[in-house]
What does this fold into?
Amino acid sequence: TAGITQAPTSQILAAGRSMTLRCTQDMRHNAMYWYRQDLGLGLRLIHYSNTAGTTGKGEVPDGYSVSRANTDDFPLTLASAVPSQTSVYFCASSSGTGGEKLFFGSGTQLSVL
Amino acid sequence: GQSLEQPSEVTAVEGAIVQINCTYQTSGFYGLSWYQQHDGGAPTFLSYNALDGLEETGRFSSFLSRSDSYGYLLLQELQMKDSASYFCAVRGRNQAGTALIFGKGTTLSVSS
It folds into this structure.
């Protein structure tokens, strides 16, 4: 079973450009999440979705948008990237909205120059 | 809002026991989770405590005291492969609904 697949693995992006990070899960989990991880700051929640068709803002949502058109896919879009969005991005899912046990993708290393 | 505090670094030797503490503040508490992350890897789930007391899973144990807003992860018989970052996380009620919020992580270095 693949679990959670993120793409791309890494990307270098010019400031001002847009980009969509892809996340697909095959576990039929209801809840999905996007976190960013920066050195010394741990994992910070960007956006989440408790079920298909609904999304919510996390701790650091500014500059990011998400959609949840179906159960499996949860793309994260940066409309106009800035250098402060340089980070490792992790997508995760859980079977319940409580989300005690999250399953993480392998991450996307994004550098905005 | 929510906040979690845990030490930034811990060092230990093989075979030793180490305890990683976590204190939290949250409005509406449901439980405390622990995750492990090796360098360059993704976080993986270790344990979850919803009630007070100790939960044991092999060499790892996790403890929770809700009255003290405090928990810890106990790692016994340390091995080199336990060198990793460890994160505590809470599911509480905040602007993120009830999604998991993570601490900044504790880097554990195990030496021989």
The interface with chain A takes residues 8, 30-31, 33, 35, 41-45, 48, 50, 87, 91, 95-105 of chain B (CB under 8 Å). The mean pLDDT of chain B is 92. Chain B has no helices and eleven strands. The longest strand of chain B covers residues 29-37.
